[in-house]
Amino acid sequence: MPQTASPALIDDLVAANHILVNEGVLDGFGHISVRHDQQPDRFLIARSMAPGLVTAEDIVVCDLDGNVHDAQGRKTYVERFIHSEIYRARPDVKAVIHSHSPAVIPFGVTGARLRPICHMSGFLGAQVPVFEIRRMAGEATDLLIRNQALGKALAADLGQSAVALMRGHGNVVVGVSIQQVVFRAIYTEGNARLQSEAMRMGEINFLTPEEAKAASDMNDEHLGRPWEVWKKRAQQNGL
Asked: Counting Cβ atoms within 10 Å, is residue 119 exposed (0-12), middle (13-18) or buried (19+)?
């Protein structure tokens, strides 16, 4: 029998949609999902709609084949296979964000690789992998992850990383909780802005892999602090 996800998890998923819009990571496009807390082979995501308008009533359930299970027969995003195949490949992952985070885009289309420039973005690791859809689907796609095969290829390129860029499209961010994945998505965008600015000044002294890991572990102990600020700020702005 299908089991109902906890109301608290759904509330956090709705809040995350609003936070990501308010902080400039999502706009009318992009999506966040969370693994079902009662059925690990399913995940929760909004129906196909603008993230800033999502309410608890808009959440649907999908399985790891990308099938939607919804009594009202509603559809979710075309790119649900980003989520389903990452959850299949990474049992540790509990939340996934796909965004078109604007400052990140240049790092997926140039030789400049996104790397951690400050302690808040240590989760980026040594450098961020880039998914090139042409390797899988040729040169005439719309760059969307429209099927399981493309989702599986993206998940493979993500590997054990926290973030993967999608050439000419955006990025995907994963985490062990909604709070962690939102933190990572916001600071991925911030790191990209800082790195672009620093590149104009000269050679960058990036975090070492050891510094990156230590900083990431430290920040994971304090995820509630920015989460509450971002949540309140979104509410104050009517989201």
From this structure: middle
User: What tens digit of pLDDT does each residue of 42-76 get?
Assistant: 999 999 999 999 999 999 999 999 999 998 999 99
Q: Is 131 helix (H, G, I), strand (E, B) or coil?
A: strand
Per-residue confidence at 21, pLDDT binned at 50, 70, 90? very high
**Rounded to an integer, what distance in angstroms lies between the CA atom of residue 196 and that of residue 113?**
11
Structure tokens at 118: 């400050």
Residue 199 pLDDT greater than 80, yes or no:
yes
Percentage with pLDDT > 70 across the chain: 99
Token readout for 144 is 């969307």
Residue 137: both structure tokens together = 């689907």
Report the CATH architecture of 7-228. 3-Layer(aba) Sandwich (3.40)
Do the bridges between strand 130-131 and strand 95-99 make them parallel or antiparallel, or are there none, so unpaired? Answer: unpaired
79 is annotated as an active-site residue: yes
Catalytic residue among 23, 57, 79, 197: 79
The set of residues, in sequence order, having a beta carbon less than 8 Å from that of 128 and lying 6+ positions away, is 107, 113, 114, 115, 161, 163, 164, 165, 171
